[in-house]
Every structure is written in structure tokens, then in C-alpha cells.
From TrEMBL:
HAMAP family: SRP54 (MF_00306). The gene is ffh. GTP binds at residues 109-116, 191-195, 249-252. GO terms for cellular component: signal recognition particle. Involved in targeting and insertion of nascent membrane proteins into the cytoplasmic membrane. Binds to the hydrophobic signal sequence of the ribosome-nascent chain (RNC) as it emerges from the ribosomes. The SRP-RNC complex is then targeted to the cytoplasmic membrane where it interacts with the SRP receptor FtsY. Its EC number is 3.6.5.4. It comes from Blautia faecicola. Belongs to the GTP-binding SRP family. SRP54 subfamily. This is Signal recognition particle protein. It is an enzyme of class 3 (hydrolase).
Amino acid sequence: MAFESLTEKLQNVFKNLRSKGRLTEADVKVALKEVKMALLEADVSFKVVKQFIKAVQERAIGQDVMNGLNPGQMVIKIVNDELVSLMGSETTEIALRPAGEITVIMMAGLQGAGKTTTTAKIAGKLKAKGRKPLLVACDVYRPAAITQLQINGEKQGVEVFAMGDKQNPVNIAKAAIEHAKNQNFNVVILDTAGRLHVDEDMMQELIQIKEEVQVDQTILVVDAMTGQDAVNVAESFNQKVGIDGVILTKMDGDTRGGAALSIKAISGKPILYVGMGEKLSDLEQFYPDRMASRILGMGDVMSLIEKAQQSIDEDKAREMEQKIKKATFGFDDYLESMNQMKNMGGISSVLNMLPGLGNKAKDIEGMIDEKDMARKEAIILSMTPKERANPDLLNPSRKKRIAQGAGVDIAEVNRMVKQFDQTRKMMKQMPGMLGGKSGKRGGF
Ligand code: GDP
């Protein structure tokens, strides 16, 4: 996984900081020097590292240490905030026209970056959102590229428009858009030709497509394993062709991760998605805040939760009710009930569904901490399937392992297990809570 070595180094720096009661300016400077080395070794561009350290230093030194706040933690928070801001702060979606119109997306990238694979991955995402995408084979130099797109399109259940290798890409794109109009497709994704290196012909071809076809979004695919090269490629494509966003592939490999940290700062364009494997489902939305927690070794809890969420459905909810009634409710079910609560519109709507709470719902809502829930989920996700199914297995050594896996204190694991037991008891006492006459379901 990317960032392993960076995370390890940053954690060491922070461990040293945390062990100090007070931080002097010199302490901060020494720590930041180590952060700087760690970032450079992770292949983050020198210019970016310099700006980053300056920003952190100004905030860390200029700040009064507030009463009750651990100064080490404050530095970590500042580093975290600055990492998030370096990566663009907000999550950026691919901008689409309304469903009644056709959005044209042009995919660009060097050969081998993962462009054709990513094109099919994107089509799958758009299809899941209810769009009707059409993939277009514009790489006329490599016949294998057309076949590859056709195979991937078939796997995704998405039509591929191809005219062989005798037409020029502009004509193919125009014909594809015509076809899309006639057949009610609403997203046209052009898979263009790559080259081994940035070269003038490739750029000209992309520029020409843009001149003659109304391209709404130009997305560049770059390989995270190539580190700073990926950043340079993004910068030159943006200067010459103009891009709207970047997809960073092969983040599942042992890349040092620098590209993810430098692309936005250098090219000015956001990372939209990251490729996490060769399978067509291995594409994740890019969240700067989650990536920062991943880099700082705080785990990427939210992404794990989202994965769990994708598999929740009505049948599972019904199954869960039966489990509660039969008292075989385990941690997996607990996790699912938390996720289900989110799917149902968050805590307040769930509380409102519970009978007999009335005005108390607001008070309870105030007491529930969403972050605390995220930590609980991390704890559960660090358990083995057996432990989740059978909470009685949790002895102290298992709890210790789970705490380490989730990056929390063992006390927190104990607290959660206790709360889980209480919830289980409460649920058993409230048989009418789930699926009452009104059909409303609480689930937590
Ligand atoms: P193109 O030449 O840019 O169209 O690249 P391809 O789509 O043919 O991909 C080149 C290679 O990279 C293929 O073996 C892909 O399976 C692989 N690949 C693409 N994206 C990822 C990714 O996110 N992770 C991993 N591990 N491999 C990827």
C-alpha cells in the first residue's frame, strides 16, 4: 500500500513530540525537519515540500498552546490540515451535464498508465449512478487497445463504439456522438491514444479533438508508481491541452505516494479518483481528508465503512431483525445497523422513528458523537470474522490486537464491547422496536 514508509516516519516524529510536555520552537523545528525529509523521501516535489513546511511552521509556532491541549497533538492537527489542503481540501466529482444532455469526457494519458482500464472503470461508476455511458475507441494506433476496450466494456455491460483503425480520432468521436444522440446515451467517453512519452503528436491529436468536438471534461490518467514523473506529465498536459482533473492509478502498489501529494499543488488540477487494483471495480473516489488520515496512520475508516455500506439491503435488515429476536446478534450486525442508520438519513431520522422518545430525541442526538461511531466501526473492522460473530471470544490479548489494528486504546475497545452488550440487551427487551406496525425500522 502507498505511503507505508511515509506513515511510519511521520508516526515516529509525532511519537517524539507527544512525549514532550511542552514544545519549544526548537522542538517544532526539529520535528518539521524530519517531516520534510520524510516527504522528500516519499517523492513529494521539492517545491511543494518547501511550501508545506513553511505553512505548518508558521501555524505551529505562531499559535499559543491552549490550556489542556497537548502541544504534540496540535502539531499533528496542523500537519493533517495542511495535508488536506495540499490535496485540494474538497472532493471533486466529474462534472456532468443534466441527464437529458450528452456529456463528452475525453480520457488522456501515457501508454501503460492505465487509461483504457480506467475508462471502463469510470463507465461502471457512471452506470451505477443511473447514467447511460458509451465508450469510444479513439486509439487507432494500437489495434489491441480497441479489443481491450471492447472486452472491458462487455465486462461492465457498457456499449463500445469502434470504427477500426482506418479513421482519424476526430471522425470517430463525431460519429460516436451522433450515435449517442440516436441511441439516447448521455455520457460519451473517448479513450484516446497514449504514447510512451509526452510527445507533440499526441498533444496535437488531443487539441484537435477538443477543437472539433465539444469536450466537457478532459481527464488525465497518470501512474502513481512513476512518482514525480506523474506530476510532470500532469503539468505538461494541463499546459498544452488543458485538463479538468486527474486519475491516479496503481495506488495499490508500493508507490511512495508523492504524486498524490504534489499533483494538485503543481498542476492546479484536482485528483478525482484513485485506481486501487486491476479489477474494474478497483476505483475509489479521492477524499483529501481521508487520504491525509491514511498518510498519518490514522486509518482510512470512512472508506472501509463505505465498502460495508455498499452491501446493505432490505433483505439484510430483515435477517438482522430475526437475529435480534433469536439473540444471535453479533458485531457484524452491530456494524451493519450503524451503517443502515446512516443510509436511513442519519441519527436524527432514526431517533425520530423510535417510539416513545418524543422530545428526548434531540437530547440524545447531542450526546452521540459521529467520530466516536467511526472509531467503533474501525474497531469492529479490525476483528476477525469469528470474533465478530461471537463476541464472547474477545479475551484481553485479542482486544489488544484489535486495538492496535484500529489505532485506538484498548480502553476504547473495552468501552465499545460494553456498549455493544448493553445495546444487545436493550434490543432484546424491545421486540417491537424493529419493523413495528408502521413498518419503520430503527436498527440501532
Ligand atoms: P493504457 O495503456 O494507459 O490504456 O493502460 P492499460 O489500461 O492497458 O493498463 C496498463 C496496465 O496497468 C494493465 O495491466 C492494467 O491492468 C494495470 N492497471 C491499471 N490501473 C491499475 C491500478 O489501479 N492498479 C493496478 N495494480 N494495476 C492497474
